[in-house]
Structure formats: C-alpha cells, structure tokens
Design brief:
Blueprint lengths: L10 H9 L22 E6 L3 H16 L4 E6 L2 H9 L5 E5 L3 H10 L3 E18 H6 L25 E5 L8 H7 L4 E5 L3 H13 L5 E6 L9 E3 L22 E9 H6 L1 H9 L4 H12 L5 H11 L1 H8 L1
Parallel strand pairs: 1-2, 1-3, 5-6, 5-7
Antiparallel strand pairs: 3-9, 4-7, 4-8, 4-9
C-alpha cells in the first residue's frame, strides 16, 4: 500500500509523529547513521505510514532491544523509495510489503541486493467499502454496477459534482482512478492525504450516519469501530492489473511479505534471524494497532503490553 520530510529516530517517536503528520525522511539522500553498521548491534527498520505497519515495527523493535540487546533506529519512507533505501543498505528491513513486482524483479531477482524475508503471516486486501449501516438500507450498493445510482448521495464539496471515492495517501498502492474510468462510474477520486486523515473523515461520516464510499484495506483496526461492507468489483484474475491504465478488476488478496537488505540478511546475526522468523496473525497486528491508534498508547507501550500477553508466540522468533 502506502510521506516525506524528517527522520524519526525511535519507533515511539516515529509512530507518534506519523499519527500527527510527521513526514518521512528522503532515504535516497540521507541514510540512518545505524543502517548497515558493520560489527555493531544496530538495526534500522523502515516504518510505513499506516498503523498496521507501525505495529509490526513496534513489536520487532521492543524485542530486538529488550531480548536481543540491539539498538534500533526507524525511518519513515514511502513504499517505492523504501525499496531503493533497502537496496542501498540505508535501511535493513521492510516488515510489510503489499506487492511491488517491478521492485522485486529489479532488486531481488536481478541485482540481488534485497533478499526475501518470508511471509509476515498477515494477508492484505484492498477494496472499496461503504458503511454497513448504509449497506443494510440499500443492499444493492454493494455491487459496483449499482454505484452510479448512489453517486448523488456520495457527493462532497471536493468531488466536483460527482460521487466521492475517498482514498488515503497518493503514495499508496491504488488503481482507483483507472477503475472509475474503465467501469464508467460517476465518481471522483479524492485523496484525504494520509491514513490518519482518512480515518478522521470516515469516523466523522459515521458519527453523522452519512453514506460514503472509500478505498480501504484489511487488516485494519477501524473495522471494529466503524463496520464497513465491501463493494463487489469485477473478479480479480491473474494479470488483470498488469496495465495500470486498463485495470477494471478488483484488488487481489496479498500475503504480506518481509524483505531484508542482502548484506544484512547474510551478516545481521541474531537480528536478521529474528526478523526472518517474525510472523504473527491479523488478530495480533490489529490488537497492537488498536492500542496505538485508538487507545493512544505509545508504540512502545503497546508493544510491551502485547509482549507480556503473548510470550508463547514471540519466543519462537528468538529460537
């Protein structure tokens, strides 16, 4: 899936700033002082701008520091630049990737500067959603062929007389503009700007019981607070999204992957071995994400609370 200006030097600071608008470091110009530090017990993790990814990093950082004795640095960087930073050794690991085949081909298969780190254990899915309260009143809204019928109800001041399809950050994986055009839908894609801004807008709509159509993704803790129902798009088939301009199908279900800088994968010792074994469930990730985003715990506090209650899970990552 998925912001731009400062280096956040700890997971707690980075993730807290993520929720309040901190931009990401441009890692093509500035490296973390700890990334690829030969012979020292330091690790640099890329933390993406959505809270599920922050949850991964928070727990990994907590265990690396408290159980393995590493110093951990985190940097926020958009999805595609993160691959460049990882290839260059400016970060050591990405813990949640939603699928970037061009980067995989270039860096993993051709240059071999990045190594697959295994599955995270979580399957991601992007889709279009309407609030469940609206879907119960209008069941046919959950099929894309009926969306134009409700376009007037979805209009906002930002959507220019069309229905609004709300997206998050322009940096996220999205086919929505092509989908709207190719399915001949009377909608305008409007970017909220970030996950946090999108959540704020969704919660405001829900508070007022207004209809809305939004790009959203699972796993995501917000489903527990604002129940949403997926709109059925034309079925996904392998290759249907190969040409970005011609996409007219649903998003796939994607097993989320981890990636490591190849030098770090070979010489990163216990830290690299731990990150390869790091694997948890959607429920685990949502539990930590909910504590960070909704209960307002710091990422470190959320990680510590999860670690205390799930030792049987994380002990296997250290063995």
């Amino acid at each position: 899936m998925r912001i731009r200006t400062r280096v956040c030097t700890t997971a707690a600071v980075a993730s807290l700033l993520l929720l309040t608008g901190c931009g990401a470091a441009d890692m093509t110009k500035q490296a973390s002082p700890f990334a690829n530090a030969q012979g020292s017990k330091t690790v640099t993790l890329s933390v993406q701008s959505w809270v599920g990814a922050q949850a991964n990093v928070a727990v990994a950082q907590y265990l690396l520091e408290h159980e393995l004795g590493y110093r951990v640095d985190t940097v926020q960087v958009d999805e595609v630049p993160a691959w460049d930073a990882l290839s260059q050794g400016r970060v050591d690991a990405i813990l949640e990737d939603w699928g970037h085949p061009e980067q995989e081909q270039r860096y993993v298969d051709d240059k071999k500067t990045i190594t697959r780190g295994g599955e995270l254990g979580v399957t991601g899915h992007i889709g279009w959603y309407v609030p469940t309260y609206f879907a119960r009143q209008h069941p046919d809204v959950t099929h894309w062929k009926n969306l134009n019928k409700y376009a007037d109800l979805m209009r906002t001041a930002e959507s220019g007389g069309k229905g609004q399809l709300m997206d998050g950050s322009p940096s996220y994986v999205t086919n929505d503009k092509a989908l709207v055009a190719n399915l001949d839908l009377d909608y305008q894609v409007v970017f909220a700007g970030s996950e946090a801004a999108q959540i704020t807008q969704i919660r405001q709509f829900a508070k007022e019981r207004k209809p809305f159509l939004t790009y959203w993704y699972a796993p995501q803790w917000l489903f527990k607070k604002v129940p949403m129902t997926e709109v059925k798009l034309p079925a996904y088939k392998e290759g249907c999204d190969a040409d970005p301009a011609k996409v007219a199908c649903a998003y796939p279900h994607t097993p989320l992957e981890k990636y490591l800088n190849s030098d770090f994968a070979r010489s990163g010792g216990k830290a690299a071995a731990f990150l390869k074994k790091f694997r948890w469930t959607t429920e685990d990730q949502n539990e930590v994400a909910l504590m960070i985003a909704d209960q307002k715990l710091t990422p470190e506090q959320a990680a510590e609370k999860w670690v205390r209650g799930h030792e049987s899970t994380w002990r296997t990552w250290l063995s």
